[in-house]
Amino acid sequence: MASKRSGTLYLGVTNDIARRVYEHKSKQNVGFTSRYGVDRLVWYEPFADIRDAIDREKVLKKWRRAWKITLIEGTNPEWKDLYEGLA
């Protein structure tokens, strides 16, 4: 998730991406994402096994920002909010 292209990036793991993005958009949880305005889903990877998702999250959190931007722009070069396509 992102606030804007040059803004804050956030990544996490969930078992219900539509619900979780909605929570971020409606600022239901006070914390990092609401504080920094992170409310746009710009990239995601589906996993069948939560352990695989957690392992991938740990890897990505160690990546440099530039690498994450390259990953996002590989599938979403316009940084469109992908939330609408989830429903």
UniProtKB/TrEMBL annotation:
Top-level taxon of origin: Bacteria
Keywords from the UniProt entry: Endonuclease, Hydrolase, Nuclease
GO molecular function list: endonuclease activity
Domain GIY-YIG: 1-70
Family: Belongs to the UPF0213 family.
PANTHER family for this protein: BSL5627 PROTEIN (PTHR34477:SF5), UPF0213 PROTEIN YHBQ (PTHR34477)
Protein name as it appears in the record: Putative endonuclease
Species annotation: Bosea lathyri
